[in-house]
């Protein structure tokens, strides 16, 4: 996904802009560029990785204390230098960087070309620069020119504009694509993701949709207001810059898998009263009365967040006794969902910026449902647009594949299920569940300490290009999630299936060259899953078991990964860890970069 960085202050902008882009590299991109203001606008762009831009920046002088920068993930126009941002107007007096999609750009571009504007790219973004130029030609001031331009645009944008004629000033505008302003001492930063500016400040202002900010060294003025924004709009980033580095690990994905014991501790911290058997969720305290009247919950999310929601369905129904449905956000937002003010719609999202999930929440609000967020990124759009919610506290997740965020989502969903049960006077499982949750960090560490089991499974899988993940009940979503992990980082065609479905078709795939990874902890479904393993074996299938009892299945399978036993409701949190490690090791064994899988971006803020 595209990344934006801006700076205005008294220091040289270029090093700050380049550092910000390097932090945003993980989001996935195919070209990059910077523009620095110093009486004129110096724009430097390059196709490919940041190292190509760095070579050019070294060759060209780019002195100035105000500038913008961008990493581009192509949506319109091939990844070439001429399509890289920043984009400029005909005279080079205006430069801008843009995240999002301008849906009516063709008609706007045709009008501009008919009046003589010359375009140098195939992008939708460049249209904005020429529209601003056209308005400033008619003596419109920069801010008004930007406002009037955006009034004629349909689509989404996170936009930062700089003009050679308006020194030490950046204009930032947001509609559907995140922008955050970093507050420094007589300097300000702008970014599409707080991780790009955390090295300089933890004090941030999140722009809301429809807001346009004039950002100078001295302050931030919103929507033309004469008075600068005050501290009331400021929030503080709650993690540190070293959390956006690899901590000595070869990849962010491995670092984030290995830090999951701490992540679970952080997700639980301050939320469990083990003595009185109670769960405390401050983010829901203010809506307890409303929650008590809810007669149905709809969980919405995408990808791993959706699979976490499927586990949440079992947890909330079994622990709190409330009916739950789980919907893919990309489907929910286009259906005519039958929801009411007695429905709670819970959005699960690590980034809090996924376009489909954000729009699903907006649809739920239009239908007067109670909207809740289970979000990892403080101050993100979904966190701010839902009526209430619970933060994961998993820290920034840099690897494109969701690992610690997923485990944190399952942990927090368990707390939410217990909390909802409490509101309804349901307590019988609470003490056991809270005690089980408290044990999880140690049990996860035990799995991580025995990573060698994973390498045995990787050897068994060898160069396979296909495999099935199978699980039942709480472990069906883990089969789907395990398949997604393997797909997205090692490009093996993996499918997740409920074990009970095998006899309805998929078993036709099974022969000695087709491996299956079966989630079979000793739980209420073990006997059924055992039968599935025997069916696979009878057809010569290669089988890897993830189980809590090696003795029970070891003789029947080709490789076995043993994990600790916990309560059935909590077992998915442990069984998903080997699937994460398996995906990681398979990617490394195939000389792939698990942090930057092809075609993927960390946060999908476009539809
Ligand atoms: C999971 O490994 C993927 N990166 C992807 O499916 C992700 O879970 C999905 O895009 C949702 O992202 P979100 O949690 O930030 O909304």
UniProtKB/TrEMBL annotation:
<protein>
    <recommendedName>
        <fullName>Glutamine--fructose-6-phosphate aminotransferase [isomerizing]</fullName>
        <ecNumber>2.6.1.16</ecNumber>
    </recommendedName>
</protein>
<feature type="active site" description="Nucleophile; for GATase activity">
    <location>
        <position position="2"/>
    </location>
</feature>
<dbReference type="InterPro" id="IPR005855">
    <property type="entry name" value="GFAT"/>
</dbReference>
<dbReference type="Pfam" id="PF01380">
    <property type="entry name" value="SIS"/>
</dbReference>
<dbReference type="InterPro" id="IPR035466">
    <property type="entry name" value="GlmS/AgaS_SIS"/>
</dbReference>
<dbReference type="GO" id="GO:0097367">
    <property type="term" value="F:carbohydrate derivative binding"/>
</dbReference>
<dbReference type="GO" id="GO:0005975">
    <property type="term" value="P:carbohydrate metabolic process"/>
</dbReference>
<keyword id="KW-0677">Repeat</keyword>
<keyword id="KW-0963">Cytoplasm</keyword>
<keyword id="KW-0808">Transferase</keyword>
<comment type="function">
    <text>Catalyzes the first step in hexosamine metabolism, converting fructose-6P into glucosamine-6P using glutamine as a nitrogen source.</text>
</comment>
<feature type="active site" description="For Fru-6P isomerization activity">
    <location>
        <position position="602"/>
    </location>
</feature>
<dbReference type="GO" id="GO:0006047">
    <property type="term" value="P:UDP-N-acetylglucosamine metabolic process"/>
</dbReference>
<dbReference type="InterPro" id="IPR046348">
    <property type="entry name" value="SIS_dom_sf"/>
</dbReference>
<dbReference type="GO" id="GO:0006487">
    <property type="term" value="P:protein N-linked glycosylation"/>
</dbReference>
<dbReference type="Pfam" id="PF13522">
    <property type="entry name" value="GATase_6"/>
</dbReference>
<dbReference type="GO" id="GO:0004360">
    <property type="term" value="F:glutamine-fructose-6-phosphate transaminase (isomerizing) activity"/>
</dbReference>
<feature type="domain" description="SIS">
    <location>
        <begin position="287"/>
        <end position="426"/>
    </location>
</feature>
<feature type="domain" description="SIS">
    <location>
        <begin position="457"/>
        <end position="597"/>
    </location>
</feature>
<dbReference type="InterPro" id="IPR047084">
    <property type="entry name" value="GFAT_N"/>
</dbReference>
<comment type="subunit">
    <text>Homodimer.</text>
</comment>
<dbReference type="GO" id="GO:0005829">
    <property type="term" value="C:cytosol"/>
</dbReference>
<feature type="domain" description="Glutamine amidotransferase type-2">
    <location>
        <begin position="2"/>
        <end position="218"/>
    </location>
</feature>
<dbReference type="GO" id="GO:0006002">
    <property type="term" value="P:fructose 6-phosphate metabolic process"/>
</dbReference>
<dbReference type="InterPro" id="IPR001347">
    <property type="entry name" value="SIS_dom"/>
</dbReference>
<keyword id="KW-0032">Aminotransferase</keyword>
<dbReference type="InterPro" id="IPR035490">
    <property type="entry name" value="GlmS/FrlB_SIS"/>
</dbReference>
<dbReference type="InterPro" id="IPR017932">
    <property type="entry name" value="GATase_2_dom"/>
</dbReference>
<keyword id="KW-0315">Glutamine amidotransferase</keyword>
<dbReference type="InterPro" id="IPR029055">
    <property type="entry name" value="Ntn_hydrolases_N"/>
</dbReference>
């Amino acid at each position: 996904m595209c990344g934006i960085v801006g700076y205005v202050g008294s220091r040289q902008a270029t090093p700050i802009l380049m550092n910000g882009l390097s932090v945003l590299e993980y989001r996935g991109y195919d070209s990059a560029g910077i523009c620095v203001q110093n009486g004129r606008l110096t724009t430097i762009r390059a196709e490919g990785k940041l190292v190509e831009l760095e070579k050019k920046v070294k060759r060209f002088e780019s002195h100035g204390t105000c500038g913008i920068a961008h990493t581009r993930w192509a949506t319109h126009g091939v990844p070439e230098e001429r399509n890289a941002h920043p984009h400029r107007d005909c005279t080079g007096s205006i430069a801008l960087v843009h995240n999002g999609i301008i849906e009516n750009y063709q008609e706007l571009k045709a009008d501009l070309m008919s009046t003589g504007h010359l375009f140098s790219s195939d992008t939708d973004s460049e249209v904005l620069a020429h529209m601003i130029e056209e308005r400033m030609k008619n003596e419109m001031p920069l801010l008004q020119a930007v406002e009037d331009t955006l009034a004629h645009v349909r689509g989404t944008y996170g936009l930062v504009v700089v003009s050679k004629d308006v020194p030490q000033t950046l204009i930032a505008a947001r509609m559907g694509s995140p922008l955050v302003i970093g507050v420094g001492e007589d300097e300000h930063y702008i970014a599409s993701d707080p991780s790009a500016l955390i090295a300089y400040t933890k004090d941030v202002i999140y722009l809301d949709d429809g807001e346009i900010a004039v950002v100078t060294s001295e302050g931030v003025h919103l929507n033309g207001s004469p008075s600068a924004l005050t501290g009331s709009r400021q929030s503080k980033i709650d993690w540190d810059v070293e959390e956006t580095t690899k901590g000595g690990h070869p990849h962010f994905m491995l670092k984030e898998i290995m830090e999951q014991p701490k992540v679970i501790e952080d997700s639980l911290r301050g939320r469990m009263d083990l003595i009185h058997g109670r769960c405390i969720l401050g983010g829901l305290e203010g809506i307890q009365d409303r929650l008590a009247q809810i007669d149905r919950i709809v969980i919405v999310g995408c990808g791993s967040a959706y699979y976490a929601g499927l586990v949440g369905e079992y947890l909330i129904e079994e622990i709190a006794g409330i009916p739950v449905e789980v919907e893919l956000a990309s489907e929910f937002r286009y259906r005519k969902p039958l929801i009411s003010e007695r429905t709670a719609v819970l959005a699960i999202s690590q980034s809090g910026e996924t376009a489909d999930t954000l729009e699903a929440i907006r649809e739920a609000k239009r239908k007067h449902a109670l909207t809740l967020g289970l979000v990892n990124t403080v101050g993100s759009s979904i966190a701010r647009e839902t009526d209430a919610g619970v933060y994961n506290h998993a820290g920034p997740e840099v690897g494109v594949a969701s690992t610690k965020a997923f485990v944190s989502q399952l942990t927090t969903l368990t707390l939410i299920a217990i909390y909802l049960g409490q509101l309804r006077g349901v307590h019988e499982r609470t003490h056991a569940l809270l005690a089980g949750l408290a044990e999880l960090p140690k049990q996860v560490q035990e799995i991580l300490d025995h990573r060698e089991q994973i390498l045995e499974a990787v050897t068994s899988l060898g160069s396979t290009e296909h495999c099935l993940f199978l699980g039942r009940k709480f472990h069906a979503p883990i089969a789907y999630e395990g398949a997604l992990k393997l797909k997205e980082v090692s490009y093996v065609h993996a499918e997740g299936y409920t074990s009970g479905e095998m006899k309805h078709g998929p078993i036709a795939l099974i022969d000695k060259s087709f491996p299956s990874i079966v989630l079979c902890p000793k739980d209420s479904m073990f006997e059924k899953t055992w039968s599935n393993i025997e069916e696979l074996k009878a057809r010569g299938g290669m089988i890897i078991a993830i189980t809590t009892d090696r003795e029970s299945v070891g003789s029947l399978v080709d490789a076995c990964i043993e994990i600790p036993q916990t309560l059935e409701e909590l077992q998915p949190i442990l069984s998903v860890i080997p699937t994460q490690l398996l995906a990681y090791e398979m990617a490394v064994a195939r000389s792939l970069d698990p942090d930057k899988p092809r075609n993927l971006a960390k946060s999908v803020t476009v539809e």
